[in-house]
Structure formats: C-alpha cells, structure tokens
Specification:
alpha/beta, five-stranded parallel beta sheet, 121 residues, Rossmann fold, 45% helix
Length: 121
C-alpha cells in the first residue's frame, strides 16, 4: 500500500530531517510535497491529496491549526511544535498526534504506528 505525505515545516533543516527519518521508519511512505509556510502547505495538500500531513503549528502565512481547519478530513494530521500550548486546538482539529520538538526517532515511530492503525496499513 502506497501512503503519501506532505511535510510543512518552516525550518528547512527540520523539514529535511523529518523527511529522512520518516522514510527510514516507514519506507512505504512517499513524500509528495514539502512546504515552508502555511499557504504553501495548503496548496500542496490541495494539489497532491496526501494521506498524511505533518504540520508545524507556528508557520508564516497560515498556522498549522488554520491549515488543518482548511483541509478538514481530507488527510490525517500530525502536528509538530516546540510549544505544548496548542494541544487542545490541535486535537479539536482532528489531529492523530502532537509531537513536541525536538522529537526522537522513537517518538516519530509512535506517531507512524498511530497513523498505520488509522490508515489500516
């Protein structure tokens, strides 16, 4: 089963690190888009129609919360943030997971496991 993902993270090094870790932990995932701001993230989701979106919460243009609200149930969302103060809003928008930065490979594995269960993969 081919699973597609978009990664939205305004810090380029963190965006690339997440992409590398994700492919190692879950080889079936194909990263079909990357974005450095919320507007580009929403554009990537509309164009690519991914199964999963990894969203930083505090991004320029639109926040991750605003992006998640805009995409609704079109994709499963995992939020990435350095601030635990957005958790309630994130889960109100249907988040599958909420990862605090810096996160470990073990924590990303847990998020992937949750996503696999959601996707039935």
């Amino acid at each position: 089963m081919n699973i597609t993902a978009v990664i939205a993270e305004d810090e380029p090094l963190l965006r690339e690190e997440l992409a590398e870790q994700l492919v190692k932990l879950w080889p079936e995932v194909e990263i079909v888009g990357k974005a450095g701001d919320g507007i580009e993230a929403l554009r990537q989701v509309v164009m690519q129609k991914p199964d999963i979106v990894f969203l930083d919460i505090q991004m320029p243009g639109m926040t991750g919360i605003e992006v998640a609200r805009s995409i609704g149930d079109r994709a499963h969302v995992v939020f990435l943030t350095a601030n635990d103060g957005f958790a309630i809003s994130a889960f109100e928008e249907g988040a599958v997971d909420y990862m605090l930065k810096p996160y470990s490979a073990a924590r990303l594995y847990t998020a992937c496991h949750r996503l696999r269960r959601r996707l039935g993969a």
